[in-house]
Structures are given as C-alpha cells and as structure tokens.
Amino acid sequence: MSAVSWERKDLLTIADLSPDEIELILDTAESFREIAHRPIKKVPTLRGRTVVNLFFEPSTRTRSSFEIAEKRLSADSINFSSSSSGLVKGESLVDTGRNLEAMAPDMIVIRHGHPGVPRMLADRIGAAVINAGDGAHEHPTQALLDAYTIREAKGRLAGLKVAIVGDIQHSRVVRSNIHLLTKMGSDVTVAGPRTMMPVDVDRLGVRVVYDLEEAIQGADVVMMLRVQLERQTRSLFPSAREYFMLFGLTRERVKAAKRGAIILHPGPMNRGIEIASDVADGPYSVILDQVANGVAVRMAVLYLLSGVHRESP
After folding, report:
1. Distance CA 143, CA 140 (A)
2. pTM over the 0.70 mark
3. Rounded distance, CA 261 to CA 222, Å?
C-alpha cells in the first residue's frame, strides 16, 4: 500500500484537504474494504496503538463505525463519553485532553457540540485528532464515506450532478460534502426551506434552490439530510406532514432524477418526513452501503494518521 504523500497529523476538516489527499484516503479505503468479507475480520496493522474515542454528543452510527474500524486494525480502543469524563466535575476540555495525552494515546476521535473543539484539542496535544463531528461545522469522515459510496456506484466524482436536500442550515454533513464534492469536480445543488438555508451558502460554489423537484431534476446523486430538531431554537416549518409534502423524497419525485440515480442519507433517517420508506429501501438506495463503507473509510483514516505507512520498509 502506498501512502507516501500523507503527512498530516490530524483530520479536522475537508476544507484543508487537497484533491490528491482525498483520492489517497478513498484508494486506501478500497484496500481495506475486503477485510469485512474475511472469515476473521482483523489485520495487525495498528497492533500496539491506542485510540481514545471521546464523544460529547450522542452517537450510535459514527461511534460504532470507528470502534469497529479500530478493532479490525487491532488497535486498543478506549471509550469516554461526556457523562463519564472529568468535564461533569468541572474540568476544562483542555485539561481533559492533557490528562488523556499523559496516558500516551496515539489518536483521539472526538465529537463535540461546539465548532472548533477538535482543532483546539489538536493544537494542544501531540496525539493525532480526528474530527467525528463538531457542532454544525464539519463531519469529514461522513463526507469521505459518502464520496467513496458515490465513486463505488458511479465510478467517478467529477462531472456528476449531486442534489443535497433538507436542513442545510444545521448540517455539518452538508458542509463537508460541499467542500469535498466541489473539490472533486461534482456539480452540487442544495435545496431546502428558506428557513433552513444559511445566508451566502452559494459562496461555497453551489447552486441554491428552494424546490425539491428543481433540485433533483437530472441528478446523478440525491442526498437527503436529516431534519435536526435538536439544533433548532424555534420551529422552522409548520408540521412534519407539510415538510414531507414539500421536501420529502417519494418514489414519484425520484423520477425527476437521472435514470439510475442513487439515493443517499447520512442517517439516522426520519422516515415519512425526509424520505419515504419505499425509497429508503428501494433499488437505488445506497444508504446501507454508506454504513458499510464507513468502516473501511475510517480504517483508512486511522491507518494514514497512525504513520504506520512511514514505518514500512
């Protein structure tokens, strides 16, 4: 496996990455993908390395995906949550990080409700830091696994028409995906209610529309987003029923997309609000492929940040 061009200590944002670095992660993930199909799903790549999973927000999918990736690489995993950390006793996040560093972990995977926390930690400790989601800022490994899934289905990222629909305002997934897909040459359209559309999002190089049918017309890829009620300080739409009527993806609406279009959702899904069940479970849905590919992509990120490739003879 060649990884000679990867020199970064941390993975904090997609905005920092070059197209070549993105390609390197996706290609590295390709080599790890087949491990999931072996009778013994484990390789000794990170034996002796310690990874701390530090999650200050609820997470099932991302946390499990990282843990499985770490175990498949034979790393030692240690899990901390907000309820089990010293923060509940008044300790600062920086002190928590320094105490963890004193235990000599090699990598820290962190999710936090405030943007910038992973970078703050990365600037203060020697261990590699992976951003597993910071507020409404970024979720880089989700964008990477989305890109892997799209490339797997379509064979490329450049030149594809991608529609991203839903709660654009509160989504860290959409920001990472916009950075990644535009860097890789995709043509991105975002759509959602005006109350869920951030000001100046068009400055990120995307087309902005407020109509689902217009967004997905001729699209190769349709990515639906979760409505993040927990991040909303007031109601931004009249009812779930009305939201589904205007922005829910139904089988009839999918017909506006290009023949053979694929459907993605970062999960967890709100069926009957963002997406109809027969679309989520339909033939063009790659939602479960996203979950499976997430393990391989996170294995690739852990491998590259570990520096193991630089130790190989």
Report:
1. 5
2. yes
3. 7
To the nearest 10 degrees (0 to 180), the angle between helices 287-306 and 61-72 is 50
Please write the tens of the pLDDT for every residue from 135-194: 989 999 999 999 999 999 999 999 999 999 999 998 999 999 999 999 999 999 999 999
- Residue with tokens 């790549």, as numbered in its chain: 45
pLDDT band, residue 58 (cuts 50/70/90)? confident
Q: Is the dihedral of CA 129, 132, 136, 137 positive or negative?
A: positive
- Say if residues 247 and 165 touch (Cβ distance below 8 Å): yes
Packing angle, helices 287-306 and 19-33, rounded to 10: 110
Q: E strand or H helix at 129, and its extent?
A: strand 128-134
Cα–Cα distance between 19 and 282 in angstroms, integer? Answer: 32
How many Å apart are CA 167 and CA 64, to the nearest integer? 24
φ, ψ of residue 11 in degrees (nearest 5): -120, 100
The values of phi and psi at residue 78, to 5°, are -125, 130
Alpha carbon 147 to its chain centroid, in Å, reads 9
